[in-house]
Automatic annotation (TrEMBL):
It comes from Pleurotus ostreatus (strain PC15). It holds the Pfam family APH. InterPro entries: AGP_Transferase, Aminoglycoside_PTrfase, Kinase-like_dom_sf. Residues 39-107 form the Aminoglycoside phosphotransferase domain. This is Aminoglycoside phosphotransferase domain-containing protein.
Amino acid sequence: LRSLPPPSSGVCGWDNGPVRCERISMDSKPQGPWFSVDEFHNWVVARSHIVAPPDKAEEIWSCIKAAHSRSHRVCLTHNDLASQNILVDEQFNITGIIDWEAAAWMPEYWSSMFLPWDRKGWWYKIMRDVFPQYEVERQAELYIW
């Protein structure tokens, strides 16, 4: 998926339209598209309700700024990659991935993130182990969501 060329430099649904993603739409209508990753990041921060304690505010905003200032290419993303959407055989070889209706062109780190309520489970650990290069983005996501 990561090798497919995106239709634009923006963040958008698989069809170049709005993004259907529970993490960003909060069960409302699809959002976007955004013309660039920077525009998407600005929207995410503006929409969040970050309440930073005074003694942590600088640390939190510094982390978010560091994560969002890194260069991220746009990749086709499943957008709902979770254990229930991965089919395996008896030897645990992956045989298929289902539930593609939320697929979108997202920043490359997006697949390795997690839903706000799934921050301590085994899936979180797997994503951290498989995508260690996105630890700064993961920490920023914890603050944002």
